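Sample pair:
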Amino acid sequence: VGVSLLIALATGGAMAAEWPTLALFWFAPTTAANVADPIFGLPLNFFFFTLPAWNLIAGWLLTIAVVICLAASLFILISGGSRVLTERRANYVPLPWRGLSLCVSFLLLVIALRTYLGRFTQLFEHHTIFDGVTYTDAHVTLTGMLVVCAALVFGSLVAAIAGLWSPRGRWLIAALVPVIICYVAVGVIGWYVSSFLVKPNELVREQPYIADNIQMTRQAFGLDRFMQREFPAETTVDATDPANNQVTLKNIRLWDWHALQDTLRQIQEIRTYYDFPDIDIDRYKIDGDTRQVMLAARELNVEKLPESSRNWINEKLIYTHGYGITMNPVNGFTSEGLPTLLLSNMPVQSTVASLKVTRPEIYFGESTNTDVYVKTKQQEFNYPQGDANNLTSYQGNGGIQVGGFLRRILLAFDRGDLAKLPFSDDVNSESRLLMRRNVRERVATLAPFLTFEQDPYIVLGDDGRLSWMLDAFTTSENYPYATHYRFGGRSINYMRNSVKAVIDAYDGTTTFYVFDTTDPIIAAYSRVFPSLFKDASAMPADLRNHVRYPEALLKLQAEVYGLYHMTNPEVFYNREDLWTVASEVGMADGGEQATVAMQPNFVLMKLPGETGEEFVEILPFTPANRNNLIGWIAGRSDGPNYGTSVVRSEEHTSELQSRQYLVC
């Protein structure tokens, strides 16, 4: 009984850890996406929700089957040992073959189930040229697995009948013989077909399966939504058409974000304990015109406090938040060579009437990693003001109310603060604990099943409040016939930017907005957590104006597109037109100069053939192992074009023309 309980706890704990798989299966959307795999004709819902759940259950059953077979084998050994020690044959203990036979019957049945399910996982297999089912798989392996499955079921019946009527060890061997014969036969036939029918005529044999892989991979990563346009790289001055591209020319970014960050740290940190951990690029209406600007949030870093000030009261009660942001046009300079700041200083000063910051305190940020207590008897440091300091008290409802003594003890235990919090006279029952203040940690705790962009960006609303915005992705490794790529430490073959997360920088209120209602995975999670997600239409207009095409998505799509822009199976097979993201000389991880892939670049421009300016994200392509431009991809962020991409390419551009265009 004790061993059984231990096994139950271990297997039950493992299954509990896989709750998302079971939850998605239970709450899978009833309407499937209009996509079916080309081999079995099954919908996406089967591969996303049903198959993972069945594989999980089959794996659990296999564990149980192996455990009970080991236990039955142990009883055989114990009984055999008893017979050896028994002096008189009349006292022989009969060997418990019946129990082992029934256990083996169950094991073979479970293996048959896993073999049957394994037919569907062939659509995810990796091969040298492409992923998915090959000619050999389609004509031999899939049928052969059914034969092996039937042999396993037959062997299970033999073992069960033998266990009930004539339990002997030889019947177990007889039950396994058909399985072994079928398995070897399928392997030999598959080897023959692959070696003598496919390899000499690989392109002809594999061509329809390559076409399926191309189609499904493009769908899985959203490449089928790309618009492709020819765009010749003209070399004349007139090609720039400056009269019709004033918006683009006025918003050419001259400030490098590294240089701007260093400058802001010198002129806007004010005190050593402030920091600008990142620079964000966005677009705002300034004096009626849309301008591209760079923003930086001034966050407080308690680790930079003077050593004499590093105590519990200062770190937990007084120095609780950062303050304000800076904003400057991407190409604005003063006569001294400094950025033209539209928002700056403490308190925040604005040079533009339409820009205002009414709630500059930043309690939640991208480098805010400590817990603090607010609404205490101690006033909080707001910002330095000459020889004195401006102080404030938290006015929001964020965090957890400390409450009475027992609640205080529980909070202190959870946050590792038992030595201070229970005995502090400054913290009262109305005080509030602000925890998980790093916005990346915050959203990952609330929605661990989503993958998040690692670079949140600050947004200034029309009401003057500051918010953080992060892109969130649904991913899967079970899209049929699609090639796998590495993303977020995982191997995936499906990705959608389905969610935008917004975190209020003052009170930490976190809202998830669904932007891709066609994604079946987010549809399932919305049914699991109906109160967690809101529709994109519920996002306030001032925040909606600052959504963008995610960098992580564009980078992965560019990697996939470099190969999968080739839609002709013959060209794809020979890798005749392989593209890569353009490279530049930059800083490697070790701090040394090296040739690295270019990062996406946000630009406010008028796309060729369009009538108005857009905030787009651009990545250029070059042919593999060459340095001349072959095309570029632009992810669009504004209005009805949000979430779409356009690829501009010139297949016959000379190297000189391409280089000149790239410089422009």
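Residues 652-664 have pLDDT under 50 and may be disordered.
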